[in-house]
Automatic annotation (TrEMBL):
<dbReference type="GO" id="GO:0046872">
    <property type="term" value="F:metal ion binding"/>
</dbReference>
<comment type="pathway">
    <text>Cofactor biosynthesis; nicotinate biosynthesis; nicotinate from nicotinamide: step 1/1.</text>
</comment>
<dbReference type="GO" id="GO:0008936">
    <property type="term" value="F:nicotinamidase activity"/>
</dbReference>
<keyword id="KW-0472">Membrane</keyword>
<keyword id="KW-0812">Transmembrane</keyword>
<keyword id="KW-0378">Hydrolase</keyword>
<feature type="domain" description="Isochorismatase-like">
    <location>
        <begin position="118"/>
        <end position="285"/>
    </location>
</feature>
<dbReference type="InterPro" id="IPR000868">
    <property type="entry name" value="Isochorismatase-like_dom"/>
</dbReference>
<dbReference type="GO" id="GO:0019363">
    <property type="term" value="P:pyridine nucleotide biosynthetic process"/>
</dbReference>
<dbReference type="InterPro" id="IPR036380">
    <property type="entry name" value="Isochorismatase-like_sf"/>
</dbReference>
<dbReference type="Pfam" id="PF00857">
    <property type="entry name" value="Isochorismatase"/>
</dbReference>
<keyword id="KW-1133">Transmembrane helix</keyword>
<feature type="transmembrane region" description="Helical">
    <location>
        <begin position="39"/>
        <end position="64"/>
    </location>
</feature>
<dbReference type="InterPro" id="IPR052347">
    <property type="entry name" value="Isochorismatase_Nicotinamidase"/>
</dbReference>
<protein>
    <recommendedName>
        <fullName>nicotinamidase</fullName>
        <ecNumber>3.5.1.19</ecNumber>
    </recommendedName>
</protein>
<comment type="similarity">
    <text>Belongs to the isochorismatase family.</text>
</comment>
<keyword id="KW-0479">Metal-binding</keyword>
Length: 315
């Protein structure tokens, strides 16, 4: 089924083609005199260019905007998706603010007390917790997620929340249940999650053709985490087999030391064999596993002691 914008382009193409045909028939039925001959010749010379344009414009649009090459589809017309323009404007403004946060990331005071460590909370959204694409026992990880966020805050880590944020015609709806449609309740972070006021929220999967498994498909998040001051990234959230795994792999490609906190990660369907395969893939790529919130707390405490001893010249 064609999306609304594809339908509009098809109708525009047909209308242009019909107009060109009517013009040709008119010229054949009304032979030009000397005065109009030059205009007819000029118009006929333009017909091939007009025809090419009607074909090229939708192709370029699909390749560069819908496929996310320009990253501008967040500015698509609100009426295309039947979304309230005010809501889309607010989302667009929020997305435009992310690059400014990237610029700030080079200034330690704006990143947090400890600019070298980041906690990434992946997709703790309503549709993955209680909605259309519910993960396996997601409620079991809610308290550990909140505990990890609290620990991160108390230890000066920057906390970043990611959100699946899809247009109504996102490709993944052909493979998975319809989920996390932008500006719908299902796409919002669960109200059972404590979101610190100074945390960042990053959307990804905003284009129809985005793969939307790694949150680093958002180039602003990639730029932020690629900051040389950031050394370690801790990842929690939903779901192990898709966005958590792919986000971790993308972070390792930046050369960052990457940790998972297993107790605060839900799997997609609870398949032990599939989960073990994904855990092994993460470990093979250098991702380190912290089994519990307690181990996360001990790890942060040990790092804090090392940092303090380094600042005092060593012990």
């Amino acid at each position: 089924m064609l999306s609304n914008d594809n339908k509009n382009y098809l109708l525009a193409f047909i209308a242009t083609l019909v107009a060109l045909l009517l013009f040709g028939f008119y010229c054949l039925a009304n032979p030009p005199d000397e005065t109009s001959a030059r205009w007819y010749a000029f118009c006929f010379d333009c017909i091939p260019d007009a025809f090419i344009a009607t074909v090229a414009i939708p192709i370029v649009y699909w390749l560069f905007v819908r496929r996310g090459i320009t990253g501008l589809s967040v500015d698509e017309s609100p009426t295309r998706l039947g979304v309230d323009p005010g809501a889309r404007l607010a989302d667009r403004q929020m997305m435009q603010n992310i690059p400014s946060e990237v610029a700030k990331a080079s200034i330690p005071e704006t990143v947090g007390v400890d600019a070298s460590r980041v906690l990434v909370v992946v997709d703790v959204q309503n549709d993955f917790i209680s909605g259309s694409l519910k993960a396996h026992k997601p409620n079991k990880v809610l308290q550990p997620v909140n505990d990890a966020i609290k620990l991160a805050q108390s230890n000066g880590l920057l906390v970043i929340f990611t959100r699946d944020w899809h247009p109504e015609d996102h490709w993944s709806f052909q493979r998975h249940a319809r989920h996390c449609v932008m500006n719908t309740p299902g796409a919002e972070i669960s109200d059972k999650i404590d979101v610190p006021p100074d945390s960042l929220v990053v959307n990804f999967g905003v284009n129809q053709g985005d793969v939307a498994y790694s949150a680093l498909e958002n180039p602003s998040l990639t730029m932020l985490l690629d900051n040389p001051k950031i050394e370690s990234v801790y990842v929690i959230g939903i779901a192990l087999n898709y966005c958590v795994k792919c986000t971790c792999l993308s972070i390792t490609e930046l050369g960052k030391t990457t940790f998972t906190i297993d107790e605060a990660i839900a799997s997609a369907d609870g398949d032990p064999d599939a989960n073990e395969k994904d855990w092994k893939e993460l470990q093979d790529h250098g991702v380190r596993r912290l089994p519990s919130i307690d181990s996360f707390a001990k790890h942060l405490s040990q790092n804090n002691r090392v940092n303090r001893s380094g600042e005092s010249g060593g012990i």
